[in-house]
């Protein structure tokens, strides 16, 4: 058999093997034998049949393998070339092979991706910032039939109803299409086809409006497509090389044509928004949506899928987004409308009544009892049912279909208004929210780095030579600790640290306000970095090739020769002229600045004497001259600087030398010893990261000691070092070992974030390392240092978020601003630690053969059959190449600062202001800590000699307009001196506030705890009468009459139970007490919607939440 290589020749294609298999009912596996006798897997069958045929591929020919064991001695991984003795081992390896995705380290500095308007700027077509906004969108909402399922019970999971789409309502802000349009059709394929058809009509109208708005841009682009005439200057600069001039003009024309097509796509693509559509609506219709949305040979579909959520589906005409990706987690539709000042339309619907299309013909409003919802475990009230009856009558409805249309349309009109209000908030800041992002973290990242750019900060990216450093930083990006220190404390029943003289009197919890936002406002690692390694005696290695050009450009501005030279670092984007990037540009003088690195631009000098490849240098020299001639031919003045000359100038010019040195990290250019590194960390000259071995010593060092405790006793409760590691069963305590054996729990190692007393090769940020050393920890070995320049480059972003929240407290009309800025502040941190290596491609293919080819790619992860009868498949694959172009050191520093802040609270406040015998930590999360204290109030346990300082911090800084920061010295808590400062400080990031107080705490495991309080509440006379009648009915003694008010003690609680909805937790305190007493895990029930066999279903799941095992 012959495999096709030339499409003109009719031969068998690999994708046709699936038909061969079906014809002969046999599985076909194809391999290729290499010269080293290793075997490479070419095509693996899906294994539908019993018999298997093995074929060998050589060039374009297939041959039968009669003895596979003799043929295949070893198997080779397609990605990393590793060999395996058995194909099963090779397949297992390929699923996790790191080599299937190549990592690209760009080096240089971070810059935001250019928008289409940035690209227009580069060819001289300028659009004002306020006009770079695409304002048109539509919203949609589906309603479903809930069709009972045959109960398929597993031990813990039960599916009860399948959701089948029955109708969709669409509404937009596009002129002529602002009225809700509802489609009802029980045939899903027909329903989706009609929806896409209508949306296409709306998209065409929006495209016409956009093209009219940007008419001037299209006219300018059309002008750019006209091939310019050859001028005398062009011929002169290109030395009368006619062919080069013609090529240059054609290149410009092609570039303009590509840009025109990109701008047309920008105008043609309509934003389509749903509420919770990523999880629900898209999954409800995705099989048919992809069929009607994605043409068979389209390569322009882009899908972002996270687990089973479709965050974005982008096609040439539509961009499907989920508005909840721009809102606070957990917000419902009513909350969304309320947040953006839109009145919700009142409506109720009997979801469980509509379980068959025939119900649409029902000729009256269903009875009240069928409005009951098992998901909400409630029915609507009599008044609400009366409202539905009135709607039926007022709208002259004749069938239940009319009621469905009314209800479906009810949501989309206010939805449009709420999205418009959200859009307007960002438009006022010249941010095109839906065109430039798919979620709020992406928006927050843009705003965060824009604020840093205005402060003159630039963030270096790792290049290939520093790949190991990228891995080290990523390995040490560790979240905040979540620890149970003490399982139980109760007022007047337990004792602080087991001391009978110190009974527990209160449980109190503190929360660090906006902790990650506070950390963002601290000094960050900016500029290029200098790396020192133990292997080369801590000799500095600086990335000069990324820095010298900017040193030269900024020196020209600093010395007054030019007002401001725009370059990548100070503008946040790369300047291009034609298709060539330039180093710097001065708009006033129309001058281009080019820094010519001698090696990269082929200059023969002392810096390139070692290069033996003269041909390569000549080629680079010619390319450099060609670019310079092109720039001059376009009318620009070109100023060039060679690297060798600039280095000489730095050596000879003292002012220039001081200027360049002032931009470098502060430890100098020579080698350093380990003790010099420690000294530089302590005096602040070294700012960055240190990879080292560190431990709590056996005895105190000379500079720090505790009068009554050894180092291990001092750090025993709150371990100072945190890392993620595998914990073997053998090293956990005997109590937990016995618990695991008693309940037959797994004894396999568990990967956990743990606190400890020593660590090896831990990468520590210097502010945290300085604190460690100041508190007695000992660095025993240093492996490497990474030095940056420190700068509070995000302080304006932090201030803007905090001020917006303060405005929302004072002025209710600013609540939208406050809530949105709060969300941006919370999202900014998360966007800095985004793991780009988890990115994947989602592809849609038609034909089982094509799907099989995709499945045999090394990057293949998952196949989903969308429509089996039409052979439509969704393929999820790892990316072949990932460009790691985010400065992950920012997120690393934020997490390091967060750990430092919580350590400072324990050791620099609690341990100094309160005797240890008067408090005991019970539970700690990333930004909060709960403790038992021996007094009735927090102030009552403050040491007498620290009470004045404590009060001074609360009341001693009461000057009008005086702002404080959480400095972990004088200011730990919000001021209580006056109303103005109370209101102001409650939004100051980093200050600790009381989160909850109670009399009892039970902690079971990480993020699973409860704090309860007993409160005395008054009862009204009506309540007393009701209780009296109830007791009388039960033949109990009647309560005393005619008492207008009495009181009773009620239990209130704050609890955390990760993994289950709190609304479904009944009697949480009783549950926690039972688990603590019996050590037997308890379960909770979740109900909701879940994807099952490519269908949305209602599920009920019992989940083990309350677990005793730490």
Automatic annotation (TrEMBL):
Coiled-coil zones: 235-269
Alphabetized GO MF terms: zinc ion binding
Entry-linked SUPFAM superfamilies: DNA/RNA polymerases
Alphabetically ordered keywords of this record: Coiled coil, Metal-binding, Zinc, Zinc-finger
InterPro entries in UniProt: DNA/RNA_pol_sf (IPR043502), Znf_C2H2_type (IPR013087)
Entry superkingdom: Eukaryota
PROSITE patterns for this protein: ZINC_FINGER_C2H2_2
Sequence ranges assigned to domain C2H2-type in this UniProt record: 75-102
PANTHER family from the UniProt entry: DNA-DIRECTED DNA POLYMERASE (PTHR33206:SF1), PROTEIN CBG10425 (PTHR33206)
Name by which UniProt lists this protein: Uncharacterized protein LOC111124728
Annotated source species: Crassostrea virginica
């Amino acid at each position: 058999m012959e495999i096709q290589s030339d499409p003109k020749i009719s031969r068998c294609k690999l994708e046709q093997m699936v038909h061969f298999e079906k014809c002969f009912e046999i599985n076909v596996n194809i391999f290729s034998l290499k010269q080293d006798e290793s075997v490479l897997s070419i095509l693996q069958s899906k294994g539908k049949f019993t018999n298997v045929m093995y074929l060998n591929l050589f060039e374009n020919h297939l041959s039968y393998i009669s003895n596979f064991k003799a043929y295949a001695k070893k198997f080779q991984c397609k990605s990393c070339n590793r060999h395996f003795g058995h194909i099963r081992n090779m397949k297992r390896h390929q699923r996790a092979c790191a080599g299937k995705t190549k990592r690209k380290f760009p080096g240089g500095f971070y810059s935001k991706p250019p928008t289409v308007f940035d690209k227009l700027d580069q060819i001289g077509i300028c659009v004002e910032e306020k006009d770079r906004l695409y304002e048109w969108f539509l919203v949609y909402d589906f309603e479903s039939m809930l069709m009972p399922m045959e109960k398929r019970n597993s031990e813990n999971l039960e599916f009860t109803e399948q959701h089948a789409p029955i109708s969709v309502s669409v509404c937009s802000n596009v002129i002529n299409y602002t009225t809700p349009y509802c489609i009802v059709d029980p045939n899903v394929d027909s329903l989706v086809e009609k929806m896409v058809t209508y949306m296409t009509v709306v998209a065409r109208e929006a495209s016409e409006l956009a093209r009219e708005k940007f008419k001037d841009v299209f006219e300018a682009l059309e002008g750019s497509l006209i091939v310019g005439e050859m001028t005398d200057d062009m011929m002169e600069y290109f030395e009368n090389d006619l062919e080069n001039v013609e090529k240059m003009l054609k290149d410009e024309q092609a570039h303009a044509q590509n840009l025109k097509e990109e701008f047309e796509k920008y105008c043609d693509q309509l934003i389509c928004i749903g509420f919770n559509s990523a999880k629900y609506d898209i999954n409800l219709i995705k099989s048919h949506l992809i069929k009607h949305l994605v043409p068979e040979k389209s390569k322009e579909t882009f899908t972002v899928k996270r687990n089973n959520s479709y965050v974005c589906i982008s096609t040439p005409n539509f961009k499907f987004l989920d508005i909840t990706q721009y809102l606070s987690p957990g917000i419902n539709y009513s909350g969304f409308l309320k947040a953006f000042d839109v009145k919700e339309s009142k409506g109720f619907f009997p979801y469980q009544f509509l379980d068959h299309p025939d119900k649409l013909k029902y000729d009256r409003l269903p009875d009240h009892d069928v409005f009951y919802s098992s998901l909400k475990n409630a029915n609507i009230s009599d008044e609400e049912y009366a409202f539905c009856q009135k709607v039926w009558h007022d709208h002259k409805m004749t069938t239940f279909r009319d009621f469905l249309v009314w209800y479906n349309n009810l949501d989309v009109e206010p939805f449009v208004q709420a999205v418009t209000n959200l859009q307007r908030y960002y438009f006022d800041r010249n941010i095109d929210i839906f065109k430039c992002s798919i979620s709020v973290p992406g928006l927050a990242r843009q705003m965060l780095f824009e604020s840093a750019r205005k402060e003159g900060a630039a963030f270096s990216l790792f290049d290939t030579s520093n790949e190991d450093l990228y891995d080290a930083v990523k390995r040490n990006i560790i979240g905040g600790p979540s620890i149970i220190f003490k399982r139980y404390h109760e007022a007047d029943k337990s004792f602080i640290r087991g001391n009978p003289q110190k009974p527990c009197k209160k449980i109190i919890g503190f929360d660090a306000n906006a902790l990650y936002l506070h950390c963002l406002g601290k000094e960050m690692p900016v500029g290029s970095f200098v790396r020192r390694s133990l292997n080369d005696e801590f000799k500095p290695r600086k990335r000069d090739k990324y820095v010298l050009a900017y040193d030269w450009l900024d020196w020209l501005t600093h010395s007054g020769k030019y007002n401001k030279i725009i370059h990548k670092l100070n503008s946040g984007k790369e300047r291009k002229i034609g298709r060539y990037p330039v180093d710097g540009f001065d708009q006033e003088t129309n001058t281009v600045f080019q820094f010519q690195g001698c090696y990269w631009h082929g200059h023969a000098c002392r810096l390139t004497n070692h290069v033996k490849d003269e041909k390569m240098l000549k080629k680079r020299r010619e390319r450099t001259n060609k670019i310079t001639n092109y720039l001059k031919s376009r009318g620009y003045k070109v100023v060039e600087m060679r690297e060798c000359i600039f280095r000489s100038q730095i050596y000879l010019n003292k002012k220039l030398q001081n200027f360049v040195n002032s931009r470098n990290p502060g430890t100098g250019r020579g080698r350093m010893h380990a003790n010099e590194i420690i000294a530089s960390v302590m005096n602040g000259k070294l700012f960055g990261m240190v990879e080292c071995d560190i431990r709590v010593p056996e005895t105190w060092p000379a500079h720090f000691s505790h009068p009554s405790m050894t180092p291990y006793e001092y750090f025993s409760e709150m371990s100072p070092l945190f890392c993620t590691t595998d914990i073997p069963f053998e090293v956990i305590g005997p109590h937990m070992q016995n618990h695991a054996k008693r309940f037959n729990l797994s004894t396999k190692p568990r990967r956990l974030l743990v606190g400890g007393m020593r660590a090896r090769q831990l990468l520590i940020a210097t502010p945290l390392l300085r604190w460690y050393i100041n508190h007695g920890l000992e660095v025993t070995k240093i492996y490497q240092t990474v030095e940056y320049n420190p700068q509070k480059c995000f302080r304006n972003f932090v201030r803007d978020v905090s001020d917006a929240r303060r405005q929302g407290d004072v002025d209710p009309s600013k609540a939208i601003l406050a809530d949105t800025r709060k969300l941006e502040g919370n999202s900014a941190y998360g966007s800095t630690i985004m793991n780009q290596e988890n990115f994947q491609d989602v592809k849609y293919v038609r034909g089982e053969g094509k799907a099989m080819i995709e499945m045999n790619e090394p990057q293949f992860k998952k196949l989903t059959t969308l429509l089996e009868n039409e052979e439509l498949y969704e393929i999820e694959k790892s990316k072949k190449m990932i460009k790691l172009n985010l400065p992950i050191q920012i997120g690393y520093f934020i997490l390091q600062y967060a750990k430092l802040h919580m350590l400072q609270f324990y050791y620099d406040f609690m341990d100094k202001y309160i005797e240890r015998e008067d408090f005991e930590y019970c539970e700690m999360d990333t930004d909060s800590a709960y403790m038992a204290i021996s007094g009735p109030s927090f102030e009552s346990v403050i040491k007498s000699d620290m009470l004045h300082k404590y009060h001074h911090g609360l009341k001693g800084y009461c000057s009008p307009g005086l702002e404080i920061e959480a400095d972990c010295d004088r200011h730990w808590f919000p001021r209580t001196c006056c109303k103005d400062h109370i209101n102001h400080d409650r939004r100051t990031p980093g200050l600790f506030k009381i989160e909850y107080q109670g009399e009892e705490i039970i902690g079971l495991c990480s993020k699973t705890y409860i704090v309860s309080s007993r409160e005395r509440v008054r009862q009204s006379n009506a309540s007393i009468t009701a209780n009296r009648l109830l007791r009388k009915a039960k033949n109990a003694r009647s309560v005393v009459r005619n008492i207008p008010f009495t009181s009773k003690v009620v239990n209130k609680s704050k609890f955390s139970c990760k993994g289950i909805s709190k609304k479904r937790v009944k009697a949480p305190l009783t549950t926690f007490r039972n688990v603590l007493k019996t050590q037997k895990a308890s379960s909770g029930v979740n109900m909701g919607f879940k994807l099952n066999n490519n269908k949305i279903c209602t599920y009920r799941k019992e989940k083990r939440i309350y677990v005793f095992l730490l």
